[in-house]
Every structure is written in structure tokens, then in C-alpha cells.
User: What shape does this take?
Amino acid sequence: MNKKKERTILYPGSFDPLTLGHLDLIRRAAKIFDKVYVGVLVNPYKKSLFSVEERVIMICRITADLPQVEVVSFGGLLIEFCHKLGIRCILRGLRDQGDFEAEIKVAQGLKVLDPDLETVFLGTDPHYSYLSSSMVREVASGGGDVSAFVPDGLAPLVAEKYKEKAMT
Ligand code: ADP
Assistant: This one.
């Protein structure tokens, strides 16, 4: 008898920090796929609020109830990382037309580089379509409460980061 093939997907992003919109996408993907890798992108050219290690730990903690989710970090070419892990599907979220325009180009570029790699888009839950990590950072940098935008327990960590920044 043939063993059922595992359906695996990689959700790559900066997640700086993870928002409720990201988490909603991870939870929905975990219902469809057997294995969901959340890939935190190491980007040495982009200044981040949280280090890659901090983001990996945070996302691990927040997704601890989802056994099919594994959090990893990766640098360099997305396509090479997918080859290394044997991943054939990439997940991206679509909030609006702006996301669509940007994401479809990336997906088409990836298709040229590797015709076997599929990009799967999930439309954002309407509750979170306005939400972005940059918005969270902006509110927090002004001293605002971000607990309505991020998973439980993350808001104090975001606030703490800005306090640390203010002291340095
Ligand atoms: P990147 O820097 O790769 O855009 P992000 O962390 O901003 O990384 O986003 C990662 C993915 O999550 C992207 O596909 C983005 O469209 C999606 N995303 C961002 N915010 C939301 C949200 N509020 N709801 C659903 N998906 C989102």
C-alpha cells in the first residue's frame, strides 16, 4: 500500500513582530496541511525590532498548541531553502490589492525559477486586513498599547523593546 504523501508548506516572512493576522493564517494552514513551517527570514540589510532568535522563540511559544507547526529561520534564497527541506508549497497572505500586486509577481518569478514550486494564497480574515507588523511597531513606538493586534503575551515584549531603545 502506498504511504500517503505529507502535505507540507512554508510560510516565510519577517514576523517582526508576529500579528494576529499572521497567527490566523498559520492556524488556517495547519488545518489544510500536515506540516507547516513558519520561516523567519534572516535579512542582514533590514533593521529589525526583534532578533531572528527572539522571533523564532516567540512564534514557537505562540504556536505550541499546533503540533504540525515548526518554526525555523533561514537566510539567502527562498528557493534554495525550499529545496533543502523538500518543500513544494509556499504560503502567502493577501490583505488587499497592494499585497496581490506584489505577491503575484514574486510567485510568478518563483515559478520561472522552479516550475514545481507552488505559491498558495490565503485571503486575510476581514478582522485583520488592516493589520501589519509595521503598524504594530508604529503604535508601540509612540507608547501605544498593541495588545489588540498581537497574540497574547506579546504586547509587553514589544513595549519592553521600545523602552530598551529609549534608554540606549
Ligand atoms: P514580509 O516582510 O515577507 O512581507 P511579513 O511578516 O510582513 O513579511 O508578512 C509575511 C506574510 O504574511 C505575507 O504574505 C503577508 O502578506 C502576510 N500577512 C501580513 N500581515 C497579515 C495579516 N494581517 N493577515 C494575514 N496575512 C498577513
Remarks:
- The first helix runs from residue 20 to 32.
- The helical segments are 20-32, 52-62, 78-85, 97-113, 133-141, 154-167.
- Residues 19 and 86 are 27 Å apart (CA to CA).
- The chain has a mean pLDDT of 95.
